[in-house]
Write a structure and sequence with these properties.
Layout lengths: L2 E5 L8 H12 L5 E5 L2 H5 L8 E4 L6 H4 L5 E5 L5 H10 L2 E5 L12 E4 L7 E3 L15 E6 L8 H4 L10 E3 L6 H10 L3 E2 L4 H7 E6 L2 H9 L5 E3 L9 H6 L4 E2 L4 H9 L16 H11 L3
Parallel strand pairs: 1-2, 1-4, 2-3, 4-5, 5-6, 6-7, 8-9, 8-11, 9-10, 11-12, 12-13
Helix pairs in contact: 1-11
Length: about 290
Protein backbone atom coordinates (compact mmCIF):
# COMPACT_ATOMS: atom_id res chain seq x y z
CA UNK A 1 0.00 0.00 0.00
CA UNK A 2 1.52 3.32 -1.11
CA UNK A 3 0.86 6.98 -0.36
CA UNK A 4 0.47 9.50 -3.19
CA UNK A 5 0.03 13.26 -3.16
CA UNK A 6 -1.41 14.84 -6.31
CA UNK A 7 -1.13 18.57 -7.11
CA UNK A 8 -2.47 20.53 -10.06
CA UNK A 9 0.40 22.45 -11.68
CA UNK A 10 1.27 23.76 -15.13
CA UNK A 11 2.06 26.63 -17.46
CA UNK A 12 -1.49 28.02 -17.17
CA UNK A 13 -1.90 27.28 -13.46
CA UNK A 14 1.33 28.10 -11.66
CA UNK A 15 2.98 26.43 -8.69
CA UNK A 16 0.98 27.50 -5.65
CA UNK A 17 -0.19 23.98 -4.92
CA UNK A 18 3.33 22.62 -5.45
CA UNK A 19 4.77 25.10 -2.95
CA UNK A 20 2.06 24.11 -0.49
CA UNK A 21 2.78 20.42 -1.04
CA UNK A 22 6.51 20.88 -0.49
CA UNK A 23 5.78 22.56 2.86
CA UNK A 24 3.46 19.74 3.94
CA UNK A 25 5.78 16.95 2.77
CA UNK A 26 8.66 18.62 4.59
CA UNK A 27 6.58 18.70 7.78
CA UNK A 28 5.77 15.00 7.37
CA UNK A 29 9.50 14.34 7.89
CA UNK A 30 10.61 11.37 5.86
CA UNK A 31 7.31 9.57 5.29
CA UNK A 32 7.41 7.68 1.98
CA UNK A 33 5.20 9.77 -0.31
CA UNK A 34 5.23 10.03 -4.09
CA UNK A 35 4.22 13.44 -5.38
CA UNK A 36 2.23 13.42 -8.62
CA UNK A 37 2.13 16.64 -10.65
CA UNK A 38 0.12 17.45 -13.73
CA UNK A 39 3.20 18.54 -15.64
CA UNK A 40 6.58 16.91 -16.07
CA UNK A 41 8.80 19.97 -15.76
CA UNK A 42 8.30 20.68 -12.06
CA UNK A 43 8.35 16.95 -11.28
CA UNK A 44 11.84 16.76 -12.76
CA UNK A 45 13.25 19.29 -10.27
CA UNK A 46 11.09 18.49 -7.23
CA UNK A 47 14.06 16.95 -5.41
CA UNK A 48 15.52 20.47 -5.13
CA UNK A 49 12.53 21.31 -2.93
CA UNK A 50 12.98 18.38 -0.57
CA UNK A 51 10.66 15.99 -2.39
CA UNK A 52 12.41 12.67 -2.94
CA UNK A 53 9.85 11.04 -5.24
CA UNK A 54 7.93 12.93 -7.90
CA UNK A 55 6.23 11.86 -11.13
CA UNK A 56 4.64 13.98 -13.86
CA UNK A 57 1.40 12.42 -15.05
CA UNK A 58 0.01 15.05 -17.48
CA UNK A 59 -3.69 14.81 -16.50
CA UNK A 60 -5.55 13.94 -13.33
CA UNK A 61 -7.10 10.81 -14.84
CA UNK A 62 -3.64 9.27 -15.08
CA UNK A 63 -3.46 8.90 -11.31
CA UNK A 64 -5.03 5.47 -11.75
CA UNK A 65 -2.17 4.49 -14.09
CA UNK A 66 0.27 4.99 -11.21
CA UNK A 67 -1.66 4.08 -8.08
CA UNK A 68 -3.44 0.85 -7.28
CA UNK A 69 -6.80 0.36 -5.63
CA UNK A 70 -6.43 0.50 -1.88
CA UNK A 71 -3.52 2.97 -1.92
CA UNK A 72 -3.84 6.31 -0.10
CA UNK A 73 -4.13 9.73 -1.75
CA UNK A 74 -3.76 13.36 -0.71
CA UNK A 75 -5.49 15.37 -3.42
CA UNK A 76 -4.97 19.10 -4.08
CA UNK A 77 -6.71 20.11 -7.29
CA UNK A 78 -9.93 21.74 -8.55
CA UNK A 79 -9.94 19.56 -11.70
CA UNK A 80 -12.16 16.68 -10.62
CA UNK A 81 -15.94 16.83 -10.99
CA UNK A 82 -18.18 15.30 -8.28
CA UNK A 83 -18.38 11.94 -10.06
CA UNK A 84 -14.61 11.69 -10.44
CA UNK A 85 -14.11 12.68 -6.80
CA UNK A 86 -16.50 9.97 -5.63
CA UNK A 87 -14.69 7.42 -7.80
CA UNK A 88 -11.40 8.39 -6.15
CA UNK A 89 -12.90 8.18 -2.67
CA UNK A 90 -13.97 4.63 -3.44
CA UNK A 91 -10.71 3.68 -5.19
CA UNK A 92 -8.35 4.77 -2.41
CA UNK A 93 -8.47 3.35 1.10
CA UNK A 94 -7.88 6.87 2.45
CA UNK A 95 -8.70 10.05 0.54
CA UNK A 96 -7.58 13.42 1.94
CA UNK A 97 -8.65 16.47 -0.05
CA UNK A 98 -7.19 19.99 0.20
CA UNK A 99 -9.60 22.78 -0.69
CA UNK A 100 -9.47 26.58 -0.91
CA UNK A 101 -13.19 27.03 -1.64
CA UNK A 102 -14.95 29.15 1.00
CA UNK A 103 -18.26 27.27 0.63
CA UNK A 104 -16.89 23.76 0.30
CA UNK A 105 -18.34 20.84 2.25
CA UNK A 106 -16.85 17.56 3.42
CA UNK A 107 -18.47 14.24 2.49
CA UNK A 108 -18.49 11.14 4.65
CA UNK A 109 -15.79 9.07 2.92
CA UNK A 110 -13.05 11.71 2.79
CA UNK A 111 -10.97 13.92 5.06
CA UNK A 112 -10.61 17.64 4.34
CA UNK A 113 -7.95 20.32 4.83
CA UNK A 114 -9.34 23.84 4.50
CA UNK A 115 -8.70 27.43 5.67
CA UNK A 116 -12.48 27.97 5.83
CA UNK A 117 -14.32 24.81 6.85
CA UNK A 118 -14.39 23.34 10.36
CA UNK A 119 -15.78 20.12 11.81
CA UNK A 120 -15.11 16.43 12.35
CA UNK A 121 -12.58 14.97 9.95
CA UNK A 122 -11.49 18.46 8.90
CA UNK A 123 -8.17 20.20 9.50
CA UNK A 124 -8.84 23.93 9.62
CA UNK A 125 -5.43 25.31 8.67
CA UNK A 126 -3.10 26.80 6.09
CA UNK A 127 0.16 25.31 4.84
CA UNK A 128 3.18 27.61 4.91
CA UNK A 129 6.71 26.34 5.37
CA UNK A 130 7.97 27.00 8.88
CA UNK A 131 11.15 28.51 7.47
CA UNK A 132 9.21 31.68 6.66
CA UNK A 133 8.22 32.29 10.29
CA UNK A 134 11.42 34.10 11.20
CA UNK A 135 12.63 37.68 11.53
CA UNK A 136 14.21 38.76 8.26
CA UNK A 137 15.99 41.94 7.26
CA UNK A 138 13.69 43.63 4.76
CA UNK A 139 16.23 45.42 2.59
CA UNK A 140 14.10 45.50 -0.59
CA UNK A 141 11.23 47.96 -0.50
CA UNK A 142 8.91 46.54 -3.18
CA UNK A 143 8.86 43.37 -5.27
CA UNK A 144 6.34 42.29 -7.89
CA UNK A 145 5.48 38.64 -8.51
CA UNK A 146 2.84 38.21 -11.19
CA UNK A 147 2.92 34.44 -10.76
CA UNK A 148 4.84 31.39 -11.96
CA UNK A 149 2.72 31.23 -15.11
CA UNK A 150 2.01 33.88 -17.73
CA UNK A 151 1.15 32.00 -20.91
CA UNK A 152 -0.72 34.97 -22.39
CA UNK A 153 2.03 37.44 -21.38
CA UNK A 154 -0.44 39.51 -19.38
CA UNK A 155 2.34 40.99 -17.27
CA UNK A 156 3.70 42.64 -20.39
CA UNK A 157 0.27 43.74 -21.55
CA UNK A 158 -0.24 45.60 -18.29
CA UNK A 159 3.14 47.19 -17.64
CA UNK A 160 1.30 50.43 -16.96
CA UNK A 161 -0.09 48.85 -13.77
CA UNK A 162 3.35 49.06 -12.14
CA UNK A 163 4.81 52.04 -14.02
CA UNK A 164 6.37 54.56 -11.70
CA UNK A 165 7.25 52.01 -9.02
CA UNK A 166 10.87 51.30 -8.18
CA UNK A 167 10.58 47.57 -7.72
CA UNK A 168 12.22 44.19 -8.15
CA UNK A 169 10.55 41.68 -10.46
CA UNK A 170 10.30 38.02 -9.47
CA UNK A 171 10.49 35.80 -12.56
CA UNK A 172 8.18 32.81 -12.84
CA UNK A 173 8.85 29.15 -13.52
CA UNK A 174 6.85 28.73 -16.72
CA UNK A 175 7.86 31.89 -18.60
CA UNK A 176 8.94 31.52 -22.23
CA UNK A 177 12.67 32.05 -22.76
CA UNK A 178 12.30 35.06 -25.05
CA UNK A 179 9.71 36.55 -22.70
CA UNK A 180 12.01 36.08 -19.72
CA UNK A 181 14.89 37.71 -21.57
CA UNK A 182 12.73 40.74 -22.37
CA UNK A 183 11.61 41.04 -18.75
CA UNK A 184 15.19 40.85 -17.48
CA UNK A 185 16.16 43.67 -19.81
CA UNK A 186 13.21 45.83 -18.75
CA UNK A 187 13.71 45.09 -15.04
CA UNK A 188 17.45 45.15 -14.24
CA UNK A 189 16.47 44.56 -10.62
CA UNK A 190 14.95 41.10 -10.68
CA UNK A 191 15.01 37.74 -9.00
CA UNK A 192 15.51 34.51 -10.90
CA UNK A 193 13.03 31.71 -10.26
CA UNK A 194 15.54 29.96 -8.00
CA UNK A 195 15.78 33.12 -5.85
CA UNK A 196 12.10 33.05 -4.92
CA UNK A 197 12.71 32.20 -1.26
CA UNK A 198 15.25 35.01 -0.93
CA UNK A 199 12.78 37.42 -2.53
CA UNK A 200 10.10 36.55 0.02
CA UNK A 201 12.51 36.92 2.91
CA UNK A 202 14.02 40.24 1.82
CA UNK A 203 10.95 42.06 0.48
CA UNK A 204 8.97 44.48 2.61
CA UNK A 205 6.03 45.22 0.28
CA UNK A 206 5.16 42.33 -2.04
CA UNK A 207 2.64 42.87 -4.83
CA UNK A 208 1.59 39.43 -5.99
CA UNK A 209 -1.19 37.47 -7.66
CA UNK A 210 0.09 34.28 -6.01
CA UNK A 211 -1.93 33.51 -2.87
CA UNK A 212 0.83 31.27 -1.54
CA UNK A 213 3.44 34.01 -2.02
CA UNK A 214 1.17 36.48 -0.20
CA UNK A 215 0.82 34.12 2.76
CA UNK A 216 4.56 33.40 2.86
CA UNK A 217 5.32 37.12 2.70
CA UNK A 218 2.99 37.81 5.60
CA UNK A 219 4.52 34.97 7.63
CA UNK A 220 8.00 36.41 7.03
CA UNK A 221 7.04 39.84 8.35
CA UNK A 222 6.35 41.41 4.97
CA UNK A 223 3.45 43.63 3.98
CA UNK A 224 1.84 41.91 0.99
CA UNK A 225 -0.69 43.35 -1.42
CA UNK A 226 -2.81 40.78 -3.24
CA UNK A 227 -3.44 41.47 -6.90
CA UNK A 228 -6.39 39.43 -8.21
CA UNK A 229 -5.58 38.16 -11.68
CA UNK A 230 -8.50 37.82 -14.07
CA UNK A 231 -7.59 34.19 -14.83
CA UNK A 232 -7.23 33.11 -11.17
CA UNK A 233 -10.08 31.98 -8.89
CA UNK A 234 -11.11 34.39 -6.15
CA UNK A 235 -11.19 31.78 -3.38
CA UNK A 236 -8.61 33.52 -1.20
CA UNK A 237 -10.28 36.94 -1.09
CA UNK A 238 -12.45 36.24 2.01
CA UNK A 239 -9.39 34.91 3.85
CA UNK A 240 -7.22 37.87 2.88
CA UNK A 241 -9.93 40.28 3.97
CA UNK A 242 -9.90 38.74 7.45
CA UNK A 243 -6.10 39.11 7.52
CA UNK A 244 -6.39 42.79 6.49
CA UNK A 245 -4.38 42.19 3.32
CA UNK A 246 -5.08 44.89 0.69
CA UNK A 247 -6.68 43.53 -2.49
CA UNK A 248 -6.34 45.10 -5.94
CA UNK A 249 -8.57 44.16 -8.88
CA UNK A 250 -8.79 45.12 -12.54
CA UNK A 251 -5.21 46.48 -12.74
CA UNK A 252 -6.32 49.48 -10.72
CA UNK A 253 -3.09 51.49 -10.82
CA UNK A 254 -4.50 54.41 -8.86
CA UNK A 255 -5.62 52.15 -6.02
CA UNK A 256 -2.28 50.33 -6.04
CA UNK A 257 -0.28 53.54 -5.67
CA UNK A 258 -2.65 54.80 -2.97
CA UNK A 259 -2.37 51.48 -1.10
CA UNK A 260 1.42 51.62 -1.16
CA UNK A 261 1.43 55.24 -0.04
CA UNK A 262 -0.82 54.49 2.94
CA UNK A 263 0.48 51.01 3.72
CA UNK A 264 2.04 52.10 7.01
CA UNK A 265 -1.50 52.75 8.22
CA UNK A 266 -2.69 49.25 7.31
CA UNK A 267 -3.13 46.97 10.32
CA UNK A 268 -2.02 43.59 9.05
CA UNK A 269 -3.27 40.75 11.20
CA UNK A 270 -0.47 39.10 13.13
CA UNK A 271 -0.10 35.99 11.03
CA UNK A 272 1.46 34.04 13.84
CA UNK A 273 -1.92 34.16 15.61
CA UNK A 274 -3.65 32.50 12.65
CA UNK A 275 -4.16 28.75 12.83
CA UNK A 276 -1.64 27.98 10.10
CA UNK A 277 0.87 25.51 11.50
CA UNK A 278 2.06 23.06 8.83
CA UNK A 279 2.76 20.53 11.56
CA UNK A 280 -0.92 20.59 12.51
CA UNK A 281 -1.67 19.46 8.95
CA UNK A 282 1.11 16.87 9.11
CA UNK A 283 -0.30 15.42 12.34
CA UNK A 284 -3.79 15.36 10.84
CA UNK A 285 -2.50 13.49 7.77
CA UNK A 286 -0.50 11.02 9.86
CA UNK A 287 -3.51 10.29 12.03
CA UNK A 288 -5.82 9.53 9.13
CA UNK A 289 -3.21 7.61 7.15
CA UNK A 290 -2.63 5.50 10.27
CA UNK A 291 1.07 6.38 10.36
Amino acid sequence: MKIYYYVHTGHRIGLDRFRRASAIIKALKGIDITLLTSDYRIASVAREYGIEKSVGIDVVRNIANIAQQGDKLIFDSPEANPIMLEDMRNYFSTFIRISDEPNDTKVSNEFLISPYVKGDGICHSLAIDEEYFQNFKKDINISYFFGDDDYEKDLEKHFDFINGLDLYLQLGFYYFFDYEDMLKEKFPNHFEFDDYKEMIQRTDILISASPQAVLESLASGGRPIYFQREDYPQDFIPLFETLHIPIIKNYDKELLHKTIKLIKNNSYDNYKRVDNNCYKIANFIKKHLNL
